[in-house]
Design a protein that fits this description.
The complex is a heterodimer of chains A (384) and B (602).
Chain A lengths: L7 E8 L21 H18 L4 E9 L7 H14 L2 E11 L3 H4 L2 H7 L3 E7 L3 H6 L6 H14 L2 E8 L6 H13 L4 E6 L7 H7 L8 H17 L4 E3 L2 E3 L6 H7 L3 E5 L4 E4 L2 E5 L3 H11 L3 E6 L2 H12 L6 E2 H8 L3 H4 L2 H9 L3 E3 L3 E4 L1 H5 L1 H8 L3
Parallel strand pairs in A: 1-2, 1-9, 2-3, 3-4, 4-5, 5-6
Antiparallel strand pairs in A: 6-8, 7-8, 10-11, 11-12, 13-15, 14-15
Helix pairs in contact in A: 1-2, 2-4, 7-9
Chain B lengths: L7 E8 L5 H11 L17 H6 L6 E8 L5 E8 L7 H8 L4 E7 L6 H12 L3 E7 L8 H12 L7 E2 L8 H11 L12 E10 L3 E10 L2 E2 L3 E4 L5 E3 L2 E5 L3 E3 L2 E2 L4 E5 L13 E4 L18 E7 L5 H14 L4 E7 L3 E8 L2 H14 L4 E3 L6 E5 L4 E4 L11 E16 L3 H10 L3 E8 L2 E9 H4 L3 H8 L5 E12 L1 E8 L2 E2 L5 E4 H18 L7 E7 L2 E8 L15 H16 L1 E4 L2 E4 H6 L8
Parallel strand pairs in B: 1-3, 1-4, 4-5, 5-6
Antiparallel strand pairs in B: 2-3, 7-8, 7-16, 8-15, 9-14, 10-11, 10-16, 12-13, 12-15, 17-19, 17-20, 18-19, 21-22, 21-23, 23-25, 23-26, 24-25, 27-28, 27-29, 27-30, 30-31, 32-33
Classes of the chains: A alpha/beta (384), B alpha+beta (602).
């Protein structure tokens, strides 16, 4: 049932191509010799049109170019899509427009053009400040070019973030402390710090299974995480989500939309969306998606209605990732379920006694200890 | 069609697991034309999936083969396939007593192994003529001469007439058949004597009802006879007489020495008793056959459905299984922790596992099994007696005068190399050594042991200490007084009744410590720390702590793909269904049975 509420909307655009596939990555990315940019521009535009037809009353608050490697897009394509969004939907004044970028010299050279196209925030996939680690992660860049790209980005964009992957094989607490210190010294307003996880069907999955490397044990991983929380907070970029840190006002508004369970549309191969009480997913293989869009005007593989129980669970899964936690009133507005209708109250009070959850003036949130075991905690809260 | 008794040969096959018993049986059936090639399923005689998978025989099977021998005469060969596990020792002895000889199959490269020993000695005890068959002689590692010597040394039987064969390739099968005819004696008996028939086994067939496998000892068994089961005291009309070839074939009658089946309009296997004597009411025999013993449950445990709403389904399934296996018993039981279930009695641990597995597999039930228990006899201070087969029912200790536990006499065959380990195992389990003799490089050890020390994991330990070479057989020798106590297990301060057990005071601490360690491994980390304690009365004798979970969070979660996180949650919900919740602690089902295995200790 379509929602009568015409709220805010985040727009995610997926560019599925990479120059090579990284061993840890399980996102929908593909390597192709050539890409017909004009054709891709048209099909992505068609998807925007399609989604706008369904969500016309919503106000767009952010656009996010993710991938894949969207910094491989032609700036012209990016400009066309941004302009289209602005024409198709009402947008707010300080529209946040983020581009994920690889920190290579080739791509840094185009940052100016991306800025001209309307990008006002970049997120660089630096991943490690160590050449051996970058090789292990099968990244194409080295540290030198990464730092150069970061400097260029900081010169051109007001808002710059970068990603690091930590809890790598054999990474000691001291080594990470040094690396994170160095990372904080660049003075960006935002950092995404992810612990390495081995996902199925990635390059690492097989190597890991065969014993090619080991990961830090649970206790070490917990210590690494705790250290990260403390250091980023001291540096003025406290965690606002499990793996995301920002100075005040510098949080990614786009990602906050996901975590606050606002509506978002996702276009491009494999993109996910949540709008009109439906979970949408696009065809994953680029060629299949392209043909579908050209024939039908959209690349939807599924658009499944979300019942109130599903919405309530999803909003809980997302909301408790945030440091501020869940606002009970907003939660009810967005899901139609009161917070105490999804959270088992005896499990909640036990979690509060155990120091994992805490009541806030507006609702509930997980404590730092609780966020560290969030998967299990949420399962317990919903009675699993 | 009473067969000329001098042309009958009744035999069983003795073999170590994997030495080729089933393949040889298949070949014999094929060679005598019992089944066409296209009808051959691998291992014709083991009907149940569990039998095929585990390579064990649970129910006795029989097949009648017509063989035209080199002397020009046609012989009737009855192959009796017998169960091969101590749990079914009684059934084995009944099957063996229905034969006059055995084929001893020995792998030409592996040689004699332990499992063979107990069975071959049992066959010798039943006065069997033994025909050794050295199998798999076409393997490069085969050394038939050495194996022959070993058979003579270790078992002490002549290998003069041993047959060299390869059941797989069909080599020597004719020689095996000839040897059966030449060396196994024909049965004896008088066709006109009063009817005397042994009930070898029985099972439920959905078309025929209860099918009774019989061996005629004296007289002639005919359709239409009114018979009496001498031990059961019941009377029945024989409405069908037949043989297995292995397909069912009805015949008019069965004479002395013949093996076949009857049906007698019976609905439940429970109406038949293995080892019972059948006779004709009109002209009964004077004495029943010796050696009958009623079936007795030896091991008890509780079976509970994981999903409480499956209780009725469990009851139905148990009833159906009992149609075909009268050797287990069940009655309703309630547990504070596990809800409604059944207290079940079994012949032994393997029997327990088989029933449990069949319930899971054939009836699609998810079950929790409690600690196996034996029957304790309790003498109360007020002079009354009671039998206890559930630790949960243990009366208050101040009211108990003394407790008696069942003991067994165990005979163990073990190669020299492992003797030390086996002796230590028996000592650790409160065993009393009665005898120790050598046969070649093998020792035969006789111990008296309390049964409750055996039901947990004695057999597993025995196998692991001896790398599978020890064989084990036992019989009960009555109850004896013992210093027995009830040990409770507390998880997060709450007693889990399903994990309480009766133990000897001298072993309580060790077992308590072990149980706590096992539970520590079996219960996953929770969001809080969990103490695990073993206690006797109010006194804690062992303790472990499961520390709280440190980290369990998905690092990356953007791109808006919530569905994957949802899947994780669904998986967690599924996982929860395989757990039992005690207070705030989820205990995985497998913990209930796994906790009782003593692992690497001892």
């Amino acid at each position: 049932m379509p929602s009568a509420r015409s709220g805010t909307l985040a727009v995610y655009i997926h560019w599925p191509f990479c120059e090579s596939k990284c061993a840890y990555c399980d996102f929908n990315s593909h390597v192709r010799d050539t890409v017909d940019h004009a054709r891709w521009r048209q099909t992505l535009l068609a998807e925007l049109n399609f989604e706008a037809g369904l969500t016309s009353g919503h106000q767009v608050t952010s656009i996010f170019f993710g991938g894949g490697t969207p910094s491989l897009m032609q700036p012209e394509t990016v400009a066309t899509l941004i302009d289209a969004v602005k024409k198709l939907w009402p947008t707010n004044d300080n529209l946040e427009i983020t581009l994920e970028a690889n920190p290579s010299s080739v791509e840094a050279a185009r940052f100016k053009d991306f800025a001209a196209a309307g990008i006002n925030r970049v997120s660089l996939g630096i991943q490690a400040l160590d050449d051996r680690a970058l090789q292990f992660l099968t990244r194409r860049h080295d540290l030198k070019s990464a730092l150069a790209a970061l400097a260029t980005a900081q010169a051109i964009f007001d808002r710059v973030s970068f990603d690091l992957i930590y809890a790598r094989p054999e990474q000691t607490i001291d080594a990470w402390e040094q690396e994170l210190k160095q990372a904080l010294a660049f003075g960006t307003g935002h950092l995404s710090l992810y612990q390495l996880t081995i996902e199925p069907n990635t390059g690492f999955a097989g190597t890991y299974k065969r014993g090619g490397f080991t990961l830090p044990d649970e206790d070490t991983a917990a210590e690494l995480y705790t250290l990260t929380q403390a250091m980023t907070a001291d540096a003025g970029l406290p965690a606002y989500e499990i793996s995301n840190h920002a100075r005040p006002g510098q949080a990614s508004r786009h990602n906050l939309s996901y975590w606050a369970y606002d509506d978002y549309v996702g276009i491009g191969p494999g993109a996910h969306g949540r709008r009109l009480h439906q979970a949408t997913a696009r065809l994953k293989r680029p060629e299949a998606w392209l043909e579908r869009v050209e024939q039908h005007g959209n690349g939807l593989e599924t658009a499944e209605p979300l019942d109130s129980r599903s919405r309530a669970e999803e909003a809980l899964l997302m909301g408790l990732r945030l440091t501020v936690g869940i606002d009970a009133e907003l939660y009810y507005q967005r899901t139609g379920t009161p917070l105490n209708g999804i959270i088992d109250q005896s499990a909640l009070s036990a979690s509060i006694d155990d120091g994992l959850m805490v009541a806030t003036p507006k609702g509930v949130t997980a404590t730092a200890a609780g966020r560290l075991v969030l998967n299990r905690l949420i399962a317990t809260l919903v009675g699993a | 069609m009473t067969t000329d008794i001098s042309k009958i040969r009744n035999f069983s096959i003795i073999a170590h697991i994997d030495h080729g018993k089933s393949t040889l049986a298949d070949r014999l059936i094929q060679a005598t034309g019992g089944l066409q090639q296209r009808e051959m399923v691998e291992q014709v005689l083991d009907n149940m999936d569990i039998e095929r998978e585990r390579g064990i025989t649970i129910k006795a099977q029989t097949v009648r083969l017509d063989y035209k021998a080199k002397d020009g005469q046609t012989y009737v060969l009855n192959l009796m396939d017998t169960p091969g596990h101590v749990d079914f020792a009684y059934e084995v002895s009944r099957s063996l007593s229905a034969c006059e000889g055995s084929i001893l199959v020995v792998d030409a490269s592996q040689g004699v192994e332990a499992q063979t020993l107990a069975n071959v000695y049992q066959a010798i005890e039943h006065d069997h003529e033994i025909v050794p068959v050295i199998n798999k002689i076409d393997l490069p590692s085969a050394d038939p001469d050495k194996v022959k010597l070993q058979i003579e040394d270790v078992i002490g039987i002549s290998t003069e007439h041993a047959v060299l064969a390869s059941a797989k390739s069909g080599l020597g099968i004719e020689d095996v058949l000839e040897a059966i005819v030449r060396f196994i004696p024909p049965p004896k008996g008088d066709p006109s004597a009063p009817l005397k028939v042994m009930l070898v086994d029985s099972w439920y067939d959905q078309y025929l009802g209860v099918v009774i496998l019989v061996r005629v000892i004296e007289g002639t068994l005919r359709k239409g006879q009114m018979i009496k089961m001498m031990a059961a005291g019941t009377e029945h009309l024989v409405d069908r007489v037949g043989v297995f070839r292995p397909k069912i074939e009805t015949v008019d009658d069965l004479g002395p020495g013949e093996v076949g089946f009857i049906t007698a309009q019976m609905k439940e296997v429970a109406q038949t008793r293995v080892g019972d004597t059948l006779t004709e009411i009109k002209r009964p025999c004077a004495e029943p056959l010796p050696g009958f013993a009623p079936v007795q449950s030896v091991v008890f445990c509780g079976l509970f459905p994981v999903d409480a709403s499956d209780f009725e389904k469990l009851r139905d399934s148990l009833s159906k299984l009992r149609l075909n296996d009268a050797s287990f018993t069940f009655e309703m039981e309630t547990s504070a922790a596990l809800g409604f279930g059944f207290r079940c009695g079994f012949l032994g641990l393997l029997h327990l596992e088989i029933i449990q597995e069949r319930l899971t597999r054939e009836y699609d039930l998810n079950l929790i099994t409690t600690a196996p228990s034996v029957i304790y006899k309790i003498q109360m201070n007020d002079g009354t007696n009671l039998e206890l087969h559930n630790p949960a029912d243990m009366p208050d200790t101040v009211r108990i005068a003394h407790i008696e536990e069942p003991w067994i006499e165990a005979t163990i065959f073990v190669p020299d190399d492992y003797l030390g380990g086996i002796l230590k195992l028996c000592q650790d389990r409160r065993g009393i050594q009665k005898n120790l003799t050598y046969a070649g490089t093998r020792a035969m050890v006789v111990y008296e042991l309390p049964l409750n020390e055996v039901v947990f994991d004695f057999y597993d330990r025995l196998k692991s200490i001896s790398r599978g070479y020890a064989s084990f057989d036992y019989h009960q020798i009555g109850h004896r007084e013992g210093d027995l106590v009830k040990m409770s297990l507390l998880v997060n301060e709450e007693p889990v009744d399903a994990l309480s057990m009766i133990v000897h005071r001298s072993t309580a601490e060790a077992r308590g410590r072990h149980m706590c360690e096992r539970m520590k491994d079996l219960i996953p980390r929770h969001l809080f720390k969990i103490p695990i304690q073993a206690a006797i009365g109010g006194k804690v004798i062992a303790r472990e702590t499961i520390s709280a979970m440190r980290k369990d969070v998905t690092a990356k979660c953007y791109g808006g793909d919530i569905s994957r996180k949802k899947k994780l949650l669904e998986k967690q919900k599924e996982g929860k269904k395989r757990m039992r919740t005690f207070g705030r602690v989820d205990i995985p089902q497998e913990a209930f049975i796994a906790a009782l295995r003593m692992g690497d200790e001892g």
